[in-house]
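TICKET: design request
STATUS: open
ATTACHED STRUCTURE:
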């Protein structure tokens, strides 16, 4: 008697709405089976048939269905088993089921590390080797968590850093892949803040050089330090502000690099005490040349981008990216385009716009069609091969876009309802953007672009 072929399992699961575009499509039977090119039909929206190839495992029990061309997200797919027979010739069990490829893959909320306590700041997200996702959780001190490959389990990285308020940290990866963090912490009660840099050893956060004792002054909410690494040389840089002695607030902007076990100043002072630099951004060209963005509230109001020159001075890139009669944008971000020229994302004229330096001057690079800007940062990142991605919050929602061209391609992150606040955007070694935001100051959301 011929044994009937029964389905043991299918993947993706029926009605799964969080499936990667790279997820394998498999059907497992209880007995060996045989297939023909017409054994199954994979279809998309409006029953459009998608060409596939079929492969049977060595034991004959698992059928793998592979689209010949990549299926772009977002979309809904349906697989229909037309006729698959066992090797003995019996007709095997049939099935039709569907699943969804979202634009952004959901990552489990990191609050399993921190609980549902109120958050002090939005999450900062970093992506390391093998696309390992790291996020910050700021409620009971500053905690970092790393995600395993299954996208649903977070593990805490060491003990929380005991900071009475949680100024925004900055994350980068050292050339050996170790996570490095720069953040502000008070020297003591009622004392100015200092910049501390810590390196994750695999089990604890270890100091990386001495604290930058001259840093940050009394400006914990506008002068966060930023850390970045040169892609080719692996050199780490930190940009931060430090006060003029005896005066409150940030005044002088400097950049330092780590060499011979200590942090050493790079070139001259980026901006002096007349400018009052705040809201910093730092990117490093592949060649190792740093670019710094800051907003001046002093004698030279505006948003400025400067580049380190060979003589050690900081040269202004063009003139200020602000348009005439516009106030400095306080939620700017900075990235380098395919030509190595800087691009700035900020709120201009009541909506998010991109400014690009074309080698001679700052020109427009497109804008968001939706009016309104969030009260928090916007984010801009390059994938290393010329594509620029943006992420921002506006009117209680978060939005993301591919802004490589002037005609922005919106990438809907399909956020949950609630008061949403953009937290960060990063691009990992494989070029895939990852975003993080806070919802109602309670829940951290992390999404990875489904590509």
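STATUS: resolved
RESOLUTION: sequence designed for all positions
ATTACHED SEQUENCE:
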């Amino acid at each position: 008697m011929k044994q009937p072929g029964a389905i043991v399992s299918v993947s993706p699961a029926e009605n799964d709405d969080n499936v990667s575009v790279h997820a394998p499509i498999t059907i497992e039977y209880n007995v060996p089976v045989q297939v023909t090119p017409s054994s199954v039909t994979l279809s998309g929206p409006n029953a459009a048939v998608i060409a596939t190839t079929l492969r049977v495992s060595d034991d004959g029990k698992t059928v793998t269905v592979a689209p010949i061309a990549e299926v772009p997200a977002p979309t809904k797919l349906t697989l229909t088993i037309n006729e698959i027979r066992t090797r003995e010739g019996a007709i095997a069990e049939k099935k039709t089921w569907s699943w969804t490829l979202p634009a952004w893959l959901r990552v489990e909320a990191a609050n399993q590390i921190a609980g549902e306590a109120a958050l002090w700041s939005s999450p900062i997200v970093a992506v390391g080797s093998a696309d390992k996702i790291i996020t910050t959780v700021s409620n009971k001190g500053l905690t970092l968590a790393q995600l395993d490959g299954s996208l649903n389990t977070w593990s805490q990285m060491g003990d929380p850093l005991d900071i009475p308020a949680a100024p925004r940290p900055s994350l980068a990866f050292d050339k050996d892949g170790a996570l490095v963090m720069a953040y502000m912490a008070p020297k003591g009660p009622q004392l100015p803040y200092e910049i501390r840099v810590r390196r994750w050893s695999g089990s604890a956060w270890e100091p990386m050089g001495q604290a930058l004792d001259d840093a940050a002054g009394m400006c914990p909410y506008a002068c966060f330090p930023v850390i970045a690494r040169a892609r080719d040389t692996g050199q780490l840089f930190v940009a931060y502000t430090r006060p003029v002695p005896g005066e409150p607030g940030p005044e002088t902007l400097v950049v330092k690099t780590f060499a011979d076990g200590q942090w050493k100043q790079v070139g001259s002072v980026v901006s002096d005490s007349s400018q009052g630099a705040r809201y910093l951004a730092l990117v490093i060209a592949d060649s190792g040349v740093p670019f710094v963005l800051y907003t001046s509230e002093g004698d030279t109001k505006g948003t400025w981008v400067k580049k380190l020159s060979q003589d050690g001075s900081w040269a202004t890139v063009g003139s200020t990216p602000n348009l005439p009669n516009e106030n400095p944008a306080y939620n700017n971000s900075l990235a380098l385009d395919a030509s190595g020229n800087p691009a700035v994302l900020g709120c201009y004229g009541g909506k998010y716009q991109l400014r690009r330096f074309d080698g001679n001057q700052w020109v427009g690079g497109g804008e968001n069609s939706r009016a309104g800007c969030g009260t928090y940062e916007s984010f801009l990142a390059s994938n290393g091969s010329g594509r620029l991605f943006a992420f921002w919050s506006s009117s209680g929602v978060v939005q993301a876009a591919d802004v490589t061209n002037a005609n922005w391609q919106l990438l809907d992150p399909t956020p949950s309802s609630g008061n949403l606040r953009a937290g960060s955007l990063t691009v990992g070694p494989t070029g895939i953007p990852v975003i993080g935001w806070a919802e109602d100051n309670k829940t951290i959301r992390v999404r990875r672009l489904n590509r």
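CLOSING REMARK: The longest strand covers residues 179-186. The mean pLDDT is 83.
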